[in-house]
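Input for the complex:
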Amino acid sequence: MSRFDAAPSAVPAADLAPLAARLLPWVLLGLLAAFPLLAPVFGLEYWLGFVRRLLIVMIAAASLNFLLGYGGMAALGHAGVIGVGAYTVVALVDAGVGSAWLAWGAALAVSALAAAAIGALSLRTRGVYFLMITLAFAQMLYYLAVSLSTYGGDDGYGLYTPLALGAGVDTGDEAVFFWVVLAIAAAVFALFSRVAASRFGHALMGIRDNETRMSALGYPVFRLKLAAFAGAGALAGLAGALLASHNAFVSPSLMHWTESATLLVMVVLGGLGRRWGAPLGVAVWLVLAELLKLHTEYWHGPLGLLLIAVVFLAPRGLAGLLARRRRTA
Amino acid sequence: MDSIFVLEQLLNGLGYGLMLFLLAAGLSLVFGIMDTMNLAHGSLYMAGAYLAAQAHAAGAGFATAVLAAVAVTVAIAFLLELAIVRRLYARDHLAQVIATFGIILIADDVVKAIWGPSPVMAAMPAALAGPVQLLPELPYPAYRLLLIGVGLVVALGLYLLVSHTRIGMLVRAGASNRGMAELMGVRVGRVFSFVFVLGAALAALAGALMGPISAVQIGMGEAILIPALVVIVIGGIGSVRGAFVAALLVGLVDTAGRAFLPPALRAVLPPALAAELGAALAGIAMYVLMAAVLILKPAGLFPARG
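Predicted:
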């Protein structure tokens, strides 16, 4: 919209803003790519792992943002699908698979199938009922993982041998694994941006805004929603697989319902259905939590206040707040 | 597995179901009438449990402690409604979920600041600590009988309040068609506040009563919130009758799943597999029930609107 607003008065200053906005992702990507090289110089090694986790959570959040922000499907079971991806890696490693690409690819496929099955049953319901039925399936997966004593049950499963990335390096190499995660996150992010602008994405947004109308226009509403649900699930599962390699450990707590809730909170905090919403929300939430934890054991309360403040002061999330600033400036 | 054991487990399920009902009734009404998703309901339950344990430990009689806990929680809820929840009624569910999740985070830290991070011991009233001989071979803890009794009395009271009083009529009118009720001159705002505070009182009562037989700790509200949400979804959001039926159903299914499934599986499967599968199935029984109900009836068993 701002693009059309700016068009008539084409002063050079107004042209700089969109240029900066176009360059920003590349600058950000460049800075992140340089981070593993710069971190030791500034004594920030500890933060290398943290930023890598941030990137992985951003993949999961971007997938939920796609589902919720563009598809209007408020799922509270994302942690369940993330867990499916993580446990797929566990199962393959346990069976002797050592290739990261094979394990992660399998996680992608298995979680897509799981999400498709869950979606086929859940998408009959709407609103809060949908929220609750997706939660129910995630809880079932959680208890399933707890009972799988082959993979450690409640105690979890340690992935002691890093997965091979090819060319003689593996996920144990901090910097290389960081770059791999960064590349995957960037690709996922670009994919979601592309899909959101595609015919499929527009049809999905149409369904979000008025399902009856889209149905009357002849769109296969259920099939489109199911495809979105399975696709988002696949990428959430990929995030789970990456998280498994990142932590070198998988336990059922990964699938606890509060993980789904936190993911939802991060996405809404950032700004629902906004391209920069999910990564912004994840970054703000996790960095704040990490900084607060360093200084106080009472770190939940301030985050709670932040949430209430966002709901009342920035109803469209932090990304919405920034976009409004830019428009009024 | 003899009939005495079955009876005992059914009573346990009944007690758990009735406590779930106390929580779910408030949650369902708040949701049904105000269309407001209040995740912080579990925090009110936690407040009730902590306050009652504190008052009881300070020397108050058990009944006094429970009533004091309910009164203080009602006061907290009143302020909460005034300051935050009231502003959420007009917002979408997601905003409500986020804001009330924020309240949960704050409540957990406040409790940690007052009572510390470790669980608090809630003593059982001495007079009810022993068992009661229900049948010659069935001794049953007196305290659990009290839970069942209180649960039934409150359920009956709530039924009378909702179905046979003027305020109950306004509540039902608000739940089934809020806009119409407003046009008919119902001061929906006041009904809202009343229902929120009533729900808080029920949640605090459940927390105060559950304290002695469960762990009074941070996070207890979140742990009970999910079963309570399962109950209101199965029952149909906004329906007290639905919440009652669903609460008993969930209480019985959950308890029966834990008590009967493992031995039943041991009879047909190898022991290791049975133990593993039994634990998993017992944990998910309640969710399977909810998923099945929603797949067959996408708006719950007793939809309030419709």
